[in-house]
UniProtKB/TrEMBL annotation:
Domain of life: Bacteria
Keywords, alphabetical: Methyltransferase, Transferase
Residues of the signal peptide: none
Pfam families: Methyltransf_15, PG_1098_Fer, Thump_like
Domain PG-1098 ferredoxin-like: 290-332
Gene3D superfamilies: Methyltransferase PG1098, N-terminal domain, Vaccinia Virus protein VP39
Swiss-Prot/TrEMBL GO biological process terms: 7-methylguanosine cap hypermethylation
Record protein name field: SAM-dependent methyltransferase, tRNA(Uracil-5)-methyltransferase
Record has Methyltransferase as a keyword: yes
GO molecular function: methyltransferase activity
Length: 405
């Protein structure tokens, strides 16, 4: 059991948590902030800025952090901290990857990841160098009833360099904001710089989990982080939210790449080893009966050949990441039945689009969706899906399709 607890030099404004203020916040959760400020309000013990900050941050938590949103007496930081924190669905996923006695969260922030790790570990150490944010997380952990999280408003790297303890897992989510609060994503621009601190981390734990921006190039990450055994590409509603890098101090021939896409009704998963991507023989063909578009996690992972081979699909072109076959399969992405294949010209389009309305996607095509809409005057929507792409014969074609049920 960790005995050291941080002594704070300040206290949060607990007046924000009184019944009257909390009632006002909840009552105005959907109120336009500008009109609220114009109207004005007077609450005892709190100023206008504090209340507005609570309303804005809580509103942003409604879908992203439903447990926090539904719990009384939660204290919120500014909305930027909520924007930067993991969602509950991604925090729950990363916690499912590990378990043990002790975990260190080096960049704890608002504490969502620590909260879910605490359900898989007997003890979680939450480090957050921002004293105010650390105090907020400490309060909320108590409100949420998680008694096995120990908070420290200090630099976690310095702690690891001094402590004699070892840990089952270390989690780190490097800050992706520079000194001017601009967004960054390259490893050397984030804090801490993982290339510099990894040797220290690996001396203290057999398993390191690093969360990075989805913008980070996977091959670049493997090259710089060195001992990567797994990479998890995590998407929510077809929007890639984060890359998780599992690092161990052991030899590995090739990392396992795991993709997962959470949506309202289903969870799509697809795994492959990196060396499979370059060693597999992909079949190419003209469009058949069905068309398949991989979800964003797979597209980010670069498993373009692996998915074709593992699911017995043909690819339309080496650089056209669309797939086809004659039998409908369960596919991690969108599936379509092909109605027609036409050359790219206005005359052909008019024949299949009497209402001039369709959903448009481009893959390996010289024009963007906006350019196509401007040129053809096709409006967005409806049940028709048009894929502007290049086939195996290097022809520019339009695949007229509808979603499978």
């Amino acid at each position: 059991m960790v005995s050291l607890q941080k002594t704070y030099s300040f206290t949060l404004n607990k007046e924000i948590l009184n019944t009257g203020t909390q009632y006002f916040i909840n009552k105005n959760i959907n109120t336009d902030i500008s009109s609220l400020l114009l109207k004005g309000f007077d609450l005892e013990g709190v100023d206008t800025k504090e209340v507005v900050e609570q309303i804005e941050a809580k509103k942003k938590s409604e879908k992203k952090l439903p447990t926090w949103f539904k719990t009384d007496k939660i204290y919120y930081p500014n909305k930027l901290n909520i924007e930067q924190t993991s969602s509950e669905i991604t925090a729950h996923y990363k916690a499912s990857l590990v378990n043990g006695k002790k975990l260190v969260d080096l960049t704890g922030g608002f504490g969502v990841d620590s909260y879910y790790f605490s359900k898989r570990f007997k003890e979680v150490l939450h480090f957050e160098i921002n004293e105010n944010l650390s105090k907020i997380a400490t309060h909320n952990f108590k409100v949420l009833g998680q008694k096995n999280i120990f908070t420290f408003a200090e630099d976690g790297i310095s702690f690891l360099e001094k402590t004699k303890d070892n840990f089952d897992c270390i989690f780190v989510d490097p800050s992706r904001r520079d000194n001017k609060k601009n967004k960054v994503f390259l490893l050397q621009d984030c804090a801490p710089n993982m290339q510099l601190v990894l040797p220290v981390l690996l001396k203290k734990s057999p398993t390191i989990i690093v969360k990075t921006s989805p913008l980070l190039d996977i091959s670049k990450g493997i090259e710089e982080l060195k001992k990567v055994v797994e990479i998890h590409v995590v998407a929510v509603n077809n929007d890639v939210k984060e890359l998780l890098w599992i690092i161990k101090d052991k030899k590995t021939t090739t990392p396992l790449i795991r993709t997962i896409n959470f949506s309202k009704h289903i969870t799509e998963e697809f795994d492959f080893h990196l060396n499979e991507e370059s060693n597999t023989n992909t079949e190419f063909s003209l469009p058949k009966k069905y068309l398949y578009e991989p979800n964003s996690a797979i597209l980010k992972s670069g498993g373009f050949n692996s998915i074709a081979t593992k699911l017995n699909l043909s690819k339309l072109h080496p650089n056209t990441h669309l797939y086809t076959n004659d039998e409908l399969i369960n596919f991690p992405g969108r599936s379509f039945i092909i109605k027609d294949i036409i050359p790219y010209n206005k005359k052909a389009l008019k024949k299949i689009l009497p209402e001039n309305k369709a959903n448009i996607t481009t893959r390996n095509f010289p024009e963007s969706v906006d350019q196509i809409r401007k040129k053809t005057k096709i409006t967005d929507g409806g049940n028709t899906y048009l894929f502007f792409c290049t086939n195996i014969n290097n022809e520019k074609i339009i695949i007229h399709s509808e979603k499978t049920t």
